[in-house]
Design goal:
The protein is an alpha/beta fold. It contains 14 helices and 15 strands. The strands form four sheets. The chain has a seven-stranded mixed beta sheet, sandwiched between helices. A four-stranded antiparallel beta sheet has the order 11-12-15-14, covered by helices on one side. Helix 10 links the parallel strand 8 and strand 9. Helix 4 crosses helix 11 and helix 5 packs parallel to helix 6. The model has no long low-confidence stretch (mean pLDDT about 95). The protein binds pyridoxal-5'-phosphate (PLP). Pyridoxal-5'-phosphate (PLP) binds next to helix 5 and helix 6.
Length: about 425
Amino acid sequence: MTLTYESSLEFARSMDQQDPLRSYRDQFHLPVQPSGEPYIYLCGNSLGCQPKRLRAFVEQELKDWENLGVEGHFHAKNPWMPYHEFLTEPMAKIVGAKSEEVVVMNALTVNLHLMMVSFYRPSQARFKIVIEGDAFPSDIYAVESQLKFHGYDPKDALIKLWPREGEHTIRTEDIEHLLAEQGQEIALVMLGGVNYYTGQAFQFQRIVEAGHAQGCKVGFDLAHAVGNLELKLHEWGADFACWCSYKYLNSGPGGVAGVFVHERHLNDPEIPRFAGWWGHDKETRFKMGPDFQPIPTAESWQLSNAPVLSMAALRASLEIFEEVGMAALREKALKLTGYLEYLLTEGDDLKGIEIITPKDPDHRGCQLSLLTGADGKQRFDALTEAGVICDWREPNVIRLAPVPLYNSFEDVWHFAKVLRNL
Ligand SMILES: *Cc1c(COP(=O)(O)O)cnc(C)c1O
């Protein structure tokens, strides 16, 4: 896509006028400064803004609980018994999966563990796990604790991927090379879909193929990819994936998470799992029998009954994704992030700031990560002071995410002006 940008405010405003998604900004509560001025909110990769329609979805469930008590499980307007099912289809579309491959449940790190119980099955010859060296800490803790749980020392069994000397992101060919060389010892490759720190989007298809060619399982943590990239999990053939919903999916703090298990693993009695009553066959669940009979879909990994209030919030948000579709979101994101990049790199260099996110749009989502110099934290604090909400990651990275659902070209323009004026 070749798009010619200009640095004037008029240009930003004309981009907003031509934006087919511009009306969605008004459908979100954007955080407001004590002065009454809106913040420039570029932190939707950390916590998405609240959709205005969300309150009514949650209030419906509060009202049914108030009026119906336990009867709400069957007689609520949206019965709570099968409540998670309302989310399956829209979620499956967002991640490019069949509906039987997806279930909404628990929280992200919990689900990583549940997936590793099923798909990290070490043997004497094959026991290693591959992750990014700068993976999100929770993922590192989860993976290391799984290794120890199986009796391995992470020093021997955890392979961390790092960029080459002098580079900031990991080359796909280096991942392929590692798998070709050591694949026979690797049980599981588990990477972020988009690395939270650098904003690098991994090449899903190539990684799945390289892993499977060596007999490894391949799973993804899509926390920063879901609602951001156009995903095709089924087609790519990943074994599993996990994601949270409070970042780009705007379900609210701690919102309920999601899981993908590829069709080929459904209904396979050889695959162990930690079980709970909500994974049991729906017809006979309330016979309360002692033998676990798994549902023949990803739902069999469910443990507990649905957290309905959290799911109601997510349902409101997913309705917006249904309306808009990932293709339109991605199309705007390419322009919006491209515009941010343009404003940060045109004209005079921004002293001491380097964008470490890949330049190629196929290798990133909407986030840009700025590597700052020694004065990075002061710059970040000054941005906050000036009404910008973005994100600081030790030791020296500022993360910015212009989110296509509610951020405007004018937001991006104002941000760049503030940063240049610091
Ligand atoms: C946000 C994020 C998490 C957070 O995990 P929770 O279990 O939701 O607290 C974990 N991993 C990655 C990669 C993340 O981006």
